[in-house]
Design brief:
- By secondary structure, this protein is mostly helical.
- It has 24 helices and 12 strands.
- The strands form 6 sheets. A two-stranded antiparallel ribbon has the order 1-3. It has a two-stranded antiparallel sheet with strand order 2-8.
- β9 and β10 form a beta hairpin.
- α7 runs parallel beside α9.
- It starts with a helix and ends in a 10-residue tail after the last helix.
Amino acid sequence: MKTKKLILLALCASGTLFNACQKYLSVDQYFNDMLNSKEKIFASKEYTSNWLTSVYRHLKDTGAQIVNKGDGGNAFSFISDDMIFGDRQDRIRRYQNCEYSADDQIYETGRWAFLYEGIRKASVFLQYVDNCIEMNMNEIADAKAQARFLRAHFYWMLLRQFGPIPIVPDEGQDVSLPYEQLGLPRNSYDDCVDYITAELALAAGALPTVRSATEVARPTRGAALATRAKVFLFAASPLYNGNNELFDLVDNTGKQLINQTYSEFKWAKAAAAAKEVIDLGQYDLYIHPYQDRDIEPYKKTIDPPYHPVFSENVYPNGWKGADPMLSYSEIFNGGITISKNPEFIFTQVEWASGNTTDIAKHAAPTTLGGYNCNAMTLKQVKAYYMNDGKTIYESPEYQKNKDAFSSNSDAYRPLPANVSLQYANREPRFYASAAYNGSIWENNSTTNSALKNRQIFYYKGEPNGKILSSPDFYVRTGVGVKKYYHPDDSWSEGGQRTRKYEPSIRYADVLLWYAEALNELTGSHIVKGYNEVDIVVNRDVNQIQYAMKRIRMRAGLPDILDNTYQNQHEFRKILKLERQIEFFGENARYWDLRRWKDAAIEENMPIMGANLDMKGDNAQRPLFYAETVITSVPKIFIRKMYLWPIETGELRRNGKLTQNPGW
């Protein structure tokens, strides 16, 4: 009976029971057939392993973090304020303009049911795997920990997108109950967090700290602890921590699902959880040793200017002996294999329906075989620092030269000729991420030498510029995207592509979560760790600097000033900017702006770019850089957009579900 309850409720939560039972004369017949088949399946190690693989497959498609359905990215990567996507079906414009609904979620349809199906499969696996006589105790323990991690991860993805969700009880429900009593109401946000983090703690206790190169896509202890830290961080953030604006998010009985009282202790739990990942000693930022680069146009532009302290010390106290450009770019473009990268904590690459190569192809110029449709917004371009650590607004050099252009003989030779000097002497992460107008696309692996090292312009009339006859395939802001592109990537004749890895969670994330959470503390707190060990956290400036300085040194930027570390408000601003830059194109900005409750400001601004109707001749070239509203992608943000609407079909299948406010 207990097993029947488990299967029933898991199916009920995902809304699949009612369709599945239609071909059976009774519920009992349906369950008996299921149970008999599962007892046979879990008697075999091969079939048991295949079942677990089927659970992993719910990380792909609608379950993917970054890659989704072969469209060059997850929708959430393109519907914030940092990047947009030229789209023949006009989906990105509809998302940006809030034209989706509970009845029409465009191409995010089915995520709720897909993830609950993964939860159901994981629950069945946990129920039956102990019966597999062909697996030893260690194999079973690891397999159960993987399934527990995946189940918690699926719940987390639902919680992040939809807010409070129904948690399927492990004990199930009585199969004799009528259908109308089998629906599940939404749990409170805090209850969801408690459940997910407890499950991740259990998984962490049984997962290994490292895996072999053939199993890098399977979770480790660090993956479970890092996911746990992320869940705690979101729970501590303004959207869910005493947010009176969501007073009307209630369950079917009218109970408020968001705690209306602010709790600093939630930040303490987030800080302690991030510290547990750091204290594993298993991870670090990826640092590429310095080497003389063959591509002369970039060498001086991306090398940090001399600093008397940081140029003379190695990471984490400086950048001596390191190449900041490659240290960042190779994380994403396939320049370093995942098994050799100390920064990756969890990746979904083996389970994604496409892979991150799709993003690079969508960004690559049409003349080089790409789709030429991923674009960086002007807001994102302006966010990147100058190479001396100043913002563009603080830099006299930028203000003086931004309207001029490079030549073959001037002081800005590191840029190719005829490039706007607003792109000169920017920080290395800019050159690893942005395909500015006039940048070089190496295309090294093509067999057609005429297509190598091509300078690509986006002026009107250029082959990769705005073409009215091909409205889908042009970079709508005048600045493309190079993150995930490797110089050897080519879609031209004879070309090959490097294998890339989806950065679902990397160590840079953990460091900035730690710094952010510590910054919000005003007192000292004792937090129980995942293994019940006490962890003491407070706003320790040295610990905040420990985390932030590593990010800055790897990027080739001077550390921020001591008085900024001391000032909670000023450090919060710096941290938000650092996250905007560091995690561009990683499906982070959308969620950050919402959890901070900054979306109402940041996403209510129009998307800006260059004037794509200007040509590259001497008369029109300067006018190309006039800040221009991208009218083809109107941008709004209203309160209901903090959370995603639950599909109407799910509300009909589960009468106890309630819709998110405004939908």
